[in-house]
Amino acid sequence: MVAVEIKPCVYWAGVNDRSTELFEGLWPIQDVGVSYNSYIIADEKVALIDLVKGIKTDDFLTQIEEIVELTNIDYVIINHMEPDHTGIIKIFLKMVPNITFVGTEKTKQMLEDYYQISTNFMAVKTGDRLNLGNHTLVFYETPFVHWPETMVTWEEQSKILFSCDAFGGFGALRGSIFDDEYDDLGFYIEEALRYYANIVAKFSRFVLKAIDALRNLEIEIIAPSHGLIWRNPKKIIDLYQKWARYASEPAEKGITLIYGSMYGNTEKMMNAIIQGASKSGLPIQVFDVARTDVSYILPFLWKYQGVIIGAPTYETKLFPPMTYVLTMAEYKRIFNKKVARFGSYGWSGGAQRDVETQLEKLKWELTEVFEFQGGPTTTDLAKGEEFGKRFAKLLKDVS
Ligand code: FEO
């Protein structure tokens, strides 16, 4: 992609990554990709806001050179140190040895730790300003959105907020870089929620704090370092605020049913249970935990109030893929859920004990348990349908 002008003298440049399989070595993105957005402000002084991961460096530098000579760049603003935004920094310093890196005091230390760079640095704190000519950058520290050193940069003339990870999403850019040039934002919103649940959720309290701290800023455009540029900034701010609140307030009425089944018995019961639960009209999302990457399960655990866990006992313990999903939910601080659990008892119990240990850590409220011996009988399946119906009603009735 070529560089794109966002406002006079302000440009997008970046890498549209469709080849990395796992973001952070953990989250699958091979089907949808991701973008690392960087921004150029070409004024009397030239600033680059955030860099990119260390891939496709030639393409990125060529984009920049469409706008300015590399050696004319005065500043690189480092909103966030994670290598998806700084991966090319050592090469950059070699090519532009007089560059000044701008970031928080914590960034300074991290530059040394990650890249052994201890020169060319200017530390800023909340409210500090950097004049480029007709444009002025103003910095706001936003720790833990996503790492402790993180900040955002607001430009006074264009009223653009360069937010780095905040308000970002998975999904490589599909041509246009602007939200208002898509009739259907479904793909980007779905991938923004997956990104939120995978990457940002644990830090929701800091997201709310940052949104609150920035509430008086006049923001015309949000330019994050992943995904779309929002010319309707309210849309993505409202979504992020809504998702962040799910960390401490009840989420949407709906059910995530997660199950695992070794020989199909728990699956048979799962089908009976969703037949019962679906009569409520609540949205239900079903995941086989052994076959679905947890990355796709976390967004639904995050956004729905209800969870049904269907997992058998495996060698006196909870079915291992389920243990992993629940552990990741705890890791991402997915709290405040109402839960029902069912499963095949097999030749020994054990799953229930492990579920209870995990639910205690998650602070999830276990409302009902239904276990059956071996394969479900017709009577068991009828009981399962009622179990599903009861749980959905309980969720529906809760205020
Ligand atoms: Fe996009 Fe936290 O890095």
What is the CA-based Rg, rounded? 24 Å
Helical coverage, percent range: 25-40%
**In this structure, how is the largest beta sheet organized?**
7 strands, mixed
Could you say which small molecules are bound to this protein?
MU-OXO-diiron
Calculate the terminal CA-CA distance, rounded to whole Å.
49 Å
- Overall strand count: 21
Give the name of the CATH architecture of the largest domain.
4-Layer Sandwich
Q: Give me the CATH fold name of the largest domain.
A: Metallo-beta-lactamase, Chain A
Query: What is the structural class?
Result: alpha/beta
- The first-level CATH class name of the largest domain: Alpha Beta
At the fourth CATH level, what is the homologous superfamily of the largest domain? Answer: Ribonuclease Z/Hydroxyacylglutathione hydrolase-like
Key phrases:
single chain; 399 residues; Metallo-beta-lactamase, Chain A; Rossmann fold; five-stranded mixed sheet; elongated; binds MU-OXO-diiron
Mind explaining what this structure looks like?
The protein has helices spanning 57-67, 83-86, 89-95, 105-115, 186-200, 204-213, 233-245, 265-278, 294-303, 320-331, 351-362, 378-397, and strands at 4-7, 10-17, 22-23, 27-28, 34-42, 46-49, 75-77, 100-103, 121-123, 129-131, 136-141, 151-155, 160-164, 221-224, 252-259, 284-288, 304-310, 313-314, 317-318, 338-344, 365-372. With 399 residues, it is an alpha/beta fold. The protein has 2 domains: 4-245, Metallo-beta-lactamase, Chain A (4-Layer Sandwich), CATH 3.60.15.10; 252-394, 3-Layer(aba) Sandwich (Rossmann fold). Strands 1-2-5-6-7-8-9 form a 7-stranded mixed β-sheet. Helix 1 links the parallel strand 6 (46-49) and strand 7 (75-77). It is elongated. It binds MU-OXO-diiron. MU-OXO-diiron binds at residues 80, 82, 84-85, 146, 165, 225-226.
